TrEMBL record:
<dbReference type="InterPro" id="IPR036220">
    <property type="entry name" value="UDP-Glc/GDP-Man_DH_C_sf"/>
</dbReference>
<dbReference type="GO" id="GO:0016616">
    <property type="term" value="F:oxidoreductase activity, acting on the CH-OH group of donors, NAD or NADP as acceptor"/>
</dbReference>
<dbReference type="InterPro" id="IPR001732">
    <property type="entry name" value="UDP-Glc/GDP-Man_DH_N"/>
</dbReference>
<dbReference type="InterPro" id="IPR036291">
    <property type="entry name" value="NAD(P)-bd_dom_sf"/>
</dbReference>
<protein>
    <submittedName>
        <fullName>UDP-N-acetyl-D-mannosaminuronic acid dehydrogenase</fullName>
    </submittedName>
</protein>
<dbReference type="InterPro" id="IPR014027">
    <property type="entry name" value="UDP-Glc/GDP-Man_DH_C"/>
</dbReference>
<dbReference type="Pfam" id="PF03721">
    <property type="entry name" value="UDPG_MGDP_dh_N"/>
</dbReference>
<feature type="domain" description="UDP-glucose/GDP-mannose dehydrogenase C-terminal">
    <location>
        <begin position="331"/>
        <end position="433"/>
    </location>
</feature>
<dbReference type="InterPro" id="IPR017476">
    <property type="entry name" value="UDP-Glc/GDP-Man"/>
</dbReference>
<dbReference type="GO" id="GO:0000271">
    <property type="term" value="P:polysaccharide biosynthetic process"/>
</dbReference>
<dbReference type="GO" id="GO:0051287">
    <property type="term" value="F:NAD binding"/>
</dbReference>
<dbReference type="InterPro" id="IPR014026">
    <property type="entry name" value="UDP-Glc/GDP-Man_DH_dimer"/>
</dbReference>
<dbReference type="InterPro" id="IPR028359">
    <property type="entry name" value="UDP_ManNAc/GlcNAc_DH"/>
</dbReference>
<comment type="similarity">
    <text>Belongs to the UDP-glucose/GDP-mannose dehydrogenase family.</text>
</comment>
<dbReference type="Pfam" id="PF00984">
    <property type="entry name" value="UDPG_MGDP_dh"/>
</dbReference>
<dbReference type="GO" id="GO:0016628">
    <property type="term" value="F:oxidoreductase activity, acting on the CH-CH group of donors, NAD or NADP as acceptor"/>
</dbReference>
<keyword id="KW-0520">NAD</keyword>
């Protein structure tokens, strides 16, 4: 059986409208494919139907405001409505892990059980959520087949991992090739047409769902590991007193294998919902098969140590100015887990703030992208409404997530507001040499991770 109707009339349902699902639904609808979005979170559905987007992802709020609630992007809590309308059902619900790295499959189970009751012959089901190898074959397809239809016969199935990064999600969705692990050749072919037409991207067909499941875990293993190397490189460069960014830029200038050496950037730490859990997912999967991975835990340990390191740099800078952390004021600019997102999930800024408070510091917080209620819950304090309010009388400015609005800020102009002998500690702003010189001329001291 073919799993797609004529190319011109393909419609999609996107189940799970979190960061990934919202971006995906908006990107598909923006390119002209009618999309129905489904989520069990009634508040989220109601917000989206009003054109409101809770995710501060560049371009996403504008797309949602324009498309949601119109025939281009309908949003509902009803699976029946979505499956009725859609040829292709794309699933992007959350896949957290337990303490030992085992998949917490509640959301995926919920989706498959609900879908199995209303799936129609000829549909193509695409899983985007990150899962351990074997999950599509051993868990998801058997659940879908409970409704009586058979994968590869009555409906198509493909595992197509999502590889976007928050902060640049929409541009990556429109650019990154989509990896396809189809249940059978027809499923792979249908998924290829869907992604080529739907997003205008290339595809990378794989020979099985298991290959595609491993691709996603390999990608995030590489990223986490590479950042761990950059972070350790930063620790040595700090000790040798050379600028780690200068070292990385020059080191990355030669080719190796299929591309250039590409050492990523050190920072205050690795957070978010993916890099903090996907590596443990691969460790658990390997362990279940008798393979004990050593590089993954090592990288995790290095990256998890960076918030404390950043807090210690702040304390050292205060000490250089003859100040004790007890009673000093540290203004944290940027609370999110990385630049250009408001996402506070597993943000490394939280352990920095905790360590500073432990040392007796008064900490003020500001982030133009993070939701104030989320910030209150994560940090136990109300964030300041403006940079000026946050930095008033600060002994240190800690730049921990450097969003686009911050880049327009002239830090030297804050001098009259801050305390005498104020330090700037750069956790993710990567200020240029000129900016650092400007700060020092204005009377600030500067310290970065490995700089
Ligand atoms: N966030 C990222 O940057 C990113 C990047 C690549 C891959 N991923 C992967 O993509 C998946 C989704 O991640 P996310 O960050 O968008 O998750 P999320 O937690 O932001 O969103 C999940 C959404 O699914 C909804 N949901 C839960 N159960 C449901 C059900 N039974 N039916 C319908 N909706 C349901 C939730 O209400 C929520 O809105 C995960 O597997 C994640 O690992 C995430």
């Amino acid at each position: 059986m073919r799993f797609l109707p004529d190319r011109e009339s393909v419609t999609a349902a996107v189940i799970g409208l979190g960061y990934v699902g919202s971006c995906l639904a908006a990107a598909l609808a923006d390119r002209g494919m009618p999309v129905v979005g489904v989520d069990t979170d009634r508040t989220l559905v109601e917000e989206m139907n009003r054109g409101h987007c809770r995710f501060k992802e560049p371009e996403l709020p504008e797309l949602i405001a324009r498309l949601a609630g119109t025939p281009a992007l309908r949003v509902t809590t009803s699976y029946e409505e979505a499956v009725e309308a859609a040829d292709v059902v794309v699933i992007a619900v959350g896949t957290p892990v337990q303490e030992d790295g085992a998949l917490l499959d509640t959301q995926l189970r919920g989706v498959c059980e609900a879908l199995s009751a209303c799936l129609r012959p000829g549909r193509l089901v695409i899983f985007k959520s990150t899962v351990p190898p074997g999950t599509t074959r051993e868990l998801l397809v058997p659940l879908l087949e409970r409704g009586g239809l058979r994968a590869g016969v009555d409906f198509g199935v493909a595992f197509c991992p999502e590889r976007l990064s928050e902060g640049v999600a929409l541009s990556e969705l429109r650019r990154f090739p989509v990896v396809i692990g189809g249940w059978d050749a027809n499923s792979t072919a249908a998924a290829a047409v869907f992604w080529e037409d739907g997003l205008g991207v290339e595809v990378v067909p794989c020979t099985s769902p298991e290959v595609a499941e491993m691709v996603k875990l390999a990608n995030n293993w590489w990223v986490d590991h590479n950042i761990a190397m950059a972070n350790e490189l930063a620790l040595v460069c700090g000790a040798v007193d050379v600028d780690v960014l200068e070292v990385i830029a020059a080191a990355n200038s030669i080719d190796k294998g299929n591309g250039n050496i590409n050492i990523l950037t050190p920072s205050v730490g690795v957070g978010g919902s993916c890099l903090t859990k996907d590596p443990w997912m691969i460790v658990h999967s390997a362990r279940e098969r008798g393979v004990e991975l050593r590089t993954v835990p090592a990288a995790r340990k290095v990256n998890d140590s960076m918030p404390r390191h950043t807090a210690s740099l702040i304390v050292e800078e205060l000490a250089k100015h003859g100040k004790s952390p007890a009673g000093a004021k540290v203004a944290v600019l940027g609370l999110a887990f990385k630049n250009d997102t408001g996402d506070l999930r597993a943000t490394p800024v939280e352990p920095v703030v905790a360590a500073l408070r432990e040392a007796g510091a008064r900490v003020s917080l500001h982030d133009p992208l993070a939701d104030a209620d989320d910030a209150q819950k994560t940090f136990g304090a109300t964030p300041a409404a403006s940079v000026a309010e946050a930095v008033r009388d600060a002994d240190c400015l800690a730049l921990l997530a450097w969003h686009r609005p911050f880049k327009e800020l002239d830090l030297t102009a804050l001098k009259p507001l801050v305390a005498d002998r104020c330090a700037v500690v750069d956790g993710r702003a990567y200020l240029s040499r000129e900016q650092i010189d400007g700060l020092e001329r204005a009377g600030f001291s500067y310290r970065g991770i490995g700089r």
